[in-house]
Amino acid sequence: MEITDIHGTVTLSNGVKMPYLGLGVFKSRDGAEVMNAVSYALEAGYRHIDTAAVYRNEAGVGEAIKNHPLDRSEVFITSKVWNSDQGYDSTIKAFYESLERLGTDYLDLYLVHWPVAGKFKDTYKALETLYEEGKVKAIGVSNFLAHHLDELLETAKISPMVNQIEYHPHLTQPDLIQKCLDLNIRPEAWSPLMQGQIFDIKDLQKLTNKYDKNVAQIVLRWNLQKGVITIPKSVNRQRIHSNADIFDFVLSDEDVKHIDHLNQNQRVGADPDNFNF
Fold first, then answer.
1. How many Cβ atoms sit within 10 Å of the Cβ of residue 236?
2. What is the pLDDT of residues 209-220, one digit of tens each?
3. 168 annotated ligand-binding residue
4. Per annotation, catalytic residue among 20, 46, 55, 110
5. In CATH, what number is assigned to the domain containing residue 65?
6. DSSP run (H or E) holding 18
7. Residue 8 forms part of a structural domain
8. Inter-residue contact 168 to 189 (CB < 8 Å)
9. Which residues constitute the domain of residue 39?
10. What is the domain count for the chain?
């Protein structure tokens, strides 16, 4: 992945260009909080906003984008179908409800949020239909492990373009990342900052003086150098700007490997093989 600046993109398997840095809005309250966060991100140069139906803030995200001078076509919007809406017909319905809340007539990327057993294949078929109808520019999955991908690909007509997974220095999932890359599925990190826990990792703090960057900036740069799209979440204007200030330095190969070796297979979120929601 060629890293240039905040407006840089990766090209998905279908040719769609997806910004490799975005703003995540998980747990951002609908209304002023999420609207301000999106506005801060757009002013800082972000062109990618990641939300989901279950976050209950799609309306605020859509309103902030509508109120910004940028044209809708310049902002890459991702949303996801929630578990209780999975299944073919219910996914189609959920998609159009997301569009209405977001105030747009298409999505740039729509994902299956979790691999709900017995349902995710039909859910993904609905995504394929929406893609073929031109309602979404790219489709993919979230929280799919290798065996979920294998099962999906038994019936999928269109290979997922993205797999959004938990990814950070304590959960690097190298085999899953490599499988995605081998299948031309672009990996994307959620919780890249471990919901703030990365600031407690002493090995990362040691790198801050070397690069004159904070821990978050080092980790986000590591994400990109590993070829992983990243969507750090914040509602703080200064931190949103700071998280984007990662294009004037390069981590050495040695330091990238050092961060790789911090892996502990430790999750801050649920295990895709053991979740009940």
1. 12
2. 999 999 999 999
3. no
4. 55
5. 3.20.20.100
6. strand 17-19
7. no
8. yes
9. 18-260
10. 1
